[in-house]
Amino acid sequence: MIGGTGAGLAVLLTQRGGTDDHTGRPGRSSLTAGPAPARSTGAGGAQSTGTVTAPPPSAPTGTLPAGYRLVRDPAGFVIAVPAGFTRASAHGRISYASRGGRFLLGVRLRKQLPQGPLGALRAADAQGPADYPGYRRGRVTGTTRHGVRAGRWEFVRDGGAHDGGPRYTCDLSWDERGRTVEVWISAPLGARGEARRHLETALDAFRLPGA
């Protein structure tokens, strides 16, 4: 995913193998909730924590913070993205990237996974060292979205001068309307706070048709 996929962020939409589907990509409103005590997963030093309950989205789709715009994406979802971010798509993933690709906001919709969002993210975390150069600080956390079980995945990977050095990724995944949804952000590690703000705003506005 970006949970379960991904690998570099040198291009607008990255995926594992060298392009970063999350690379710059896995949290959201649940980022505001503190994780429970962690336990080791044995995957590259990553940790899997207990369940964290996130507050429901607080920003209705008509009242976005300054500097954001509401997008009705052709792939069938509504999301808030920072002004100036441009859209790209590849391999079933949609990305909205800042100029130069410093920030990458991604979305993936796919058939509901049998292992559930949390299980899929744990598998992606275990695969992280193979998929992302310099994979470290991997952490998978259980949370909720709109009362439904969800998972959050955060990690850091190596990055080059072209994409701001070490990259931070935060990914939120949940099941909705028969599909598994992933929304993630990737950004230079030093811009982690701004990245989380972009992700939280995107998630607060995120809707699927009929939701």
List the helices and strands and how they pair.
Blueprint: E1 38-40, E2 47-51, E3 68-73, E4 77-82, E5 86-90, E6 93-97, E7 104-111, H1 116-131, E8 136-145, E9 148-157, E10 167-176, E11 179-188, H2 192-205
Detailed description of the structure:
The chain is mainly beta and 211 residues long. Helix content is 14%, strand content 37%. The protein is built from two helices and eleven strands. The protein has helices spanning 116-131, 192-205; strands spanning 38-40, 47-51, 68-73, 77-82, 86-90, 93-97, 104-111, 136-145, 148-157, 167-176, 179-188. The strands form two sheets. It has a nine-stranded mixed beta sheet with strand order 1-2-8-9-10-11-7-6-5, sandwiched between helices. The chain has a two-stranded antiparallel sheet with strand order 3-4. A hairpin with a 2-residue loop joins strand 10 (167-176) and strand 11 (179-188). It is globular. The two termini are 23 Å apart.
Helix content: 10-25%
Biggest pleated-sheet summary:
9 strands, mixed
Rg from Cα: 15 Å
Structural class by SSE content:
mainly beta
What is the helix tally?
2
Shape: globular
Give, in spatial order, the strands making up the sheet with the most strands: 1-2-8-9-10-11-7-6-5
- What fraction of the residues are assigned to beta strands by DSSP? 35-45%
How many runs of DSSP E, i.e. beta strands?
Answer: 11
Question: Ends: how far apart?
Answer: 23 Å
Residue stretches low in confidence (pLDDT < 50, at least 5 long) are: 2-19, 23-61
Give helix and strand order, one letter per element, not per position.
EEEEEEEHEEEEH
Overall average residue pLDDT: 78
